[in-house]
Design a protein that fits this description.
Length: 390
Amino acid sequence: MDLQQLIRNQTDFSLEIAKSVLLKEAKDCNVVFSPLSVHVVLSLIAAGSKGPTLDQILSFLRSKSNGELNSFASETVSLVLADGSQSGGPRLSFANGVWIDKLLPLKASFKEIIDNVYKAVSMQVDFQTEAVEVVNEVNSWAEKETSGLIKEVLPPGSVDSSTKLIFANALYFKGTWNEKFDASKTKDYDFYLLDGGSVHVPFMTSKKKQFVCAYDGFKVLRLPYRQGEDKRCFSMYIFLPDTKDRLPALVEKVASEPGFLDRYLPSEAVQVGDFRIPRFKISFGFEVSKVLKGLGLVLPFSGGLTEMVDSILGKDLCVSSVFHKSYIEVNEEGTEASAASAGVITLRSIRLPTKVVDFVADHPFMYLIREDMTGAELFIGHVLNPLQAA
């Protein structure tokens, strides 16, 4: 198995979802989401699918087989998402959970994958009479796994007596900047909005060298997080268009140009002139199912999930919804971010050379958090107004 190739596939998937979310689903609000979190929920669903449904999920995830998806999930959890806080690196936690109707036994082969590959906790519950309680249980689980940042991944009414299975995962990340910003230097400046207006927001600044590259029409900033004792290196990247209204065009370019991230990420620190980054805090939730269907992934929502339960009812299982909720806070110390996804299964009824670079993020920009050794994308989003928290 070529982990690098699998991560390139995950990057392509991540950017396809990002393009749809940033340019259509949430083009007018701040966004944070975890493509990795969504990828794992779809991989879990694939593990219990067969026939055309499985083929469509594999094609959508750019994968050849369930075995490849399972290997990717296993390697990612052990190599990328292991907690590094004990050795001074970022604090990370990633958890999977499965809630199944108490009358439906899981197939032994599927249970083995859930337990051993995805390390998921599985609970038997009563959807018939306790649907509201199950929603509360899943939400409490997500809140605990994201250190209280995600309080509601499943909205009210998302589970009813026809629900048979819920898959959920939660990702938590807290990293400290390699070079913290001095909070006493943070000052308010104007941030210019897409509609032509502006808001006064706190901007962080620094005179230290920064990883910045200027290209034709945009600049890219890399802000590394403090590393632990292992080789992993996490960074936040900010993609800033040169003009105040060009973010949609830049998102289109990042998401559509093959190998964009391999070519346009800064690798050396340079002297900066005017350097300002806004503090921001974003909470964002959406129904991923709508985005997935819009991108052509439709068969899991009508059937084909025959490999999950050992029951005649298995032939009628389908995905009803996939929900996702994320949170991110960026300040002088570093970044705290989390995400939770839940899939509900129901019964069917040119680089420009320059010496001193200015980087003033005073208008809408795109950002992502990735692990640089592997290239795995943990979070993607855009900031349209730093004062809007939700």
